[in-house]
Amino acid sequence: MRARLTFLAVRVLMLCWEYPPLVVGGLGRHVEALSRELVRAGHDVQVVTRGEKDEIVDEIVDGVHVRRAAVDPLAIDFTTESLLSWSQAHEHSLLRAALPLLRRRGRFDVVHAHDWLVAQAGTTLAAQTHAPLVATIHATEAGRHQGWLPQPLNRAIHSVERWLAGSADAVITCSRTAREESARLFDLDPVDIAVVPNAVDVPRWRASARARQQIRARRAGTGPLLAFAGRLMHEKGVQTLLDAVPPLRRRHPGLRLAVAGTGSYEDELYEQARRLRLLRTVDWLGFVPEAEVAALLGAADVVAVPSYYEPFGIVALEAVAARTPVVVAETGGLADLAADGIAAASFTPGDVTGLVDAIDTVLADPDRAHRNAARAGRVVARDYTWSAVADRTAQVYRAAGGRRVR
Question: 289: which of 239, 259, 300, 403 lies 20 to 30 Å off by Cα?
Fold first, then answer.
């Protein structure tokens, strides 16, 4: 067994399914920011990720060594075939990209696998390198389906998550709620699961006064402006927000809602807005570049995050960084933000009346709401930085190394 790791300078082999500019959700941007900050702290980070070309591509981005695997000529389409089959087949390309690095770059101190899509690669490479395996569980299949595993595919994905978590020397989740969920689902001791939250680059979310004023001139009516930013999926809960708009407009005439994002649930949401006669009240903005999202969040009177399931809820942090009051559903990491006083108000997921009351509480006393938002913004700028996240992650690497020695 290897000697105890000192971790003065850790050599990390990081595995993830996406990495900018290849972005599907928030995972890739999380890994990018974490890797960059680990390098700034003096660590050596090699990322292996999925590529889009028929050959392996190596590059160094902000000091991070990034290897993008070659695309295999396989006729597997996850829209018609099993997502599990598609992902498992593509993991072979990750392994073929990673294995030569063991000869070229030498020993790695830790293998860090992000989510179930790299479980095969992570466990195999940890076995080959005799390095501790750290697994970050960004979300769970059961959580995405409100605690159920309705189809064989869902149960298969759950089994991969359970296997990865059980094989790891250390497990990371992004919130206390996610830690309890993972412990229950994967039969782990919560004490053995580290909580390392997501983070935001606060200056990127402080839009100029002019940019905020331009958004209000285009989007706000004679009343308050509500905002939502995120994927238009069922679990994001926009349907609850739409149901809340008519009673909110009765309390706050002229109120408008701006929705930034796209997704598979768009048609259903448009139809719901039509039934509620909100077509002139809701602005559907579609995909919005990050700089414009920052201006939208900063211009709003309230940002709503009404998710049914949200492992962390990064948009809530982004809105707080923009110094805007945030109303969140009490689920996942959002529940942590509510409990810690970072969110301005909260409600039970799916509870329209609770959401109406929560938003109304914020709008009824805007001075108090903005004082609280400024205080929450200072907390985020102190505790939810990428340097803090990188430091806590390095501590997990140290603990994983100790467990591997034992």
Answer: 239
